[in-house]
Amino acid sequence: MAATRHPLSPPPLDELAKVLQRALEANYESASADVTTCPDLTQAPFHLASPGLSGDESAADIGGQAHLAPRPLLEKRYSLLECAKIMNMSEQRGMLIGAGAAPFHVIGQNAELAPNLSWQDDFENIKNLTHVTKVVERQPSDEAQVRCEKLDSTECALMMNLFGSSGATGPVLKITARARKGDEKSFSEFLRVALQREYGDEHQISLGGVFVMKRGNAVFHVMPDFPPEEQLPFKDREAVSDWLTFHDFVAPMVCLTVFHSADPEGLGLRMEHTHCFSSDKNQGGHYHYDVSPGQDGTEGEIEYEAYLNTAKVLYRIDMPQ
C-alpha cells in the first residue's frame, strides 16, 4: 500500500489561539481560544481512549471519496493498526481518533465509523472505544432509523482521516463557543477556514482532536448500505447526496475531528472530516452544521467545547489515482 510522508511546521499553539480568538468573536456571542494543559479526555463528556492528545502528533489521510463514488471499490479495506505502523507510531503507546467509513466486510453493511482506540505496551493490548453508526431501517417514506454502538473491530474501509498521538497529557488548544450570531454554521469548518484565511494556501496546518456539542442541535448524515448494482454508478455529487440519510440530533454529541487549512502539495486531502457519537443515546454520524442560531438564554442555543492539537507530520496513504 503506497504511502508518503510530509513533515509539517505548524505555528505555536499560542499564536493559533490568538488567530482563532479573533475569528470566533465574529461568529459567536461568547467564545474563547486558549492554550491549556489537556484535561483527562477519558472522562465524561469526552470518552476518549487516552487522556491526552500529545506525543508524536501526526495525521493521516487514507483512501478517499473516489473509493466510494462513482462506484464503491469493495477491495479498499484497511487496518487501523497497520495504518498506525505506516504512521511510524510507537507500539509502546498510542492513540488514534478520527472519521471514516466503517468496515462493511466486518459488520455486513456500509456505515459511518468514529475510530477511538489506544494501545499500551504492544499493538495487541488495545482499548477500543470506536463507534459505528448505521442505518437499521429505511421506510418507504425515506425516513431512516439509525443506531450508534461500539465496535470491537480495528478495521475500516474506503476512506479514513486520522489524528494520531501517544495519548499523553500536554499543552493543547481549548476552544469554547456559545450562541452563534454569524452565518458560519459548521464549527469545525469555521475553524479550518479561519486558519486558511490567516495562513493562505501554501502553509498547511493540520489539527485533530475532539469537541463536544454541549447544547443545541446539528445536522448529521449516515451512509446507508451500498446501492444495488442497477443503481450504480453514482452519476454526480447530487446522486450521492440523495443516497445519504440526513438527521437532526440534539446535544450532547462527542465529535472526533481532523482538518487541514490547506493542501499545498496537491495530495487530494479531505479538508475537514468529523464523525460523532453519543454516549447515552443511539445517535451518531457525520457532522455537517448546527441548526441552533445564537439566541441568548434559550434552550436551543448552540454550545461547543473543543480540545485540539497540531500534527507535526502528515501521511498520505493509498491516495486514489
Helix fraction bin? 10-25%
Q: What is the averaged pLDDT score? A: 95
The helix/strand order is: EHEEEHEHEEEEEEEHEEHEEEEEE
Strand fraction equals 35-45%
- The CATH homologous superfamily: Hypothetical protein, similar to alpha- acetolactate decarboxylase, domain 2
The assigned structural class equals mainly beta
Per CATH, the architecture is: 2-Layer Sandwich
Radius of gyration: 18 Å
| Low-confidence runs of at least 5 consecutive residues | 294-299
| Tertiary shape | globular
For the report, how would you describe the main beta sheet? 11 strands, mixed
Q: Count of helices?
A: 5
Query: N-to-C terminal Cα separation, in Å?
Result: 13 Å
Which CATH class is shown?
A: Alpha Beta
Examine the coordinates and then state which fold CATH places here, giving the name of the CATH topology. 60s Ribosomal Protein L30, Chain: A
